User: What shape does this take?
Amino acid sequence: MSLFLAFLGAPVVWVVHLAVSYFLVALDCATDWNGARIAVLLVTALCALAAGGSGVYAWRGGASIDPPQVREFLVRSGAILAALFAGAIILSGMAPLFLPICS
Assistant: This one.
């Protein structure tokens, strides 16, 4: 489980971010809620923190597996993936600041 968190934590958080963001925008467009902009920004902040936390966990070598070379590769790759996916979460979460929610 710790190896899963170290290597795939950030990509899973990214998928959750996309699903929740699309749901919030669809809910906003289908109803008269008008709260999607703030909700998406909050979800973006939470998911970016979660992806960053996954990267910190991976960078610290949070997984234990033998042989050591495999473990080292997976946790370092997980840390790099976390940085990339945290950036993707932040960039996609900023879209409601510049684009209309419902068009």
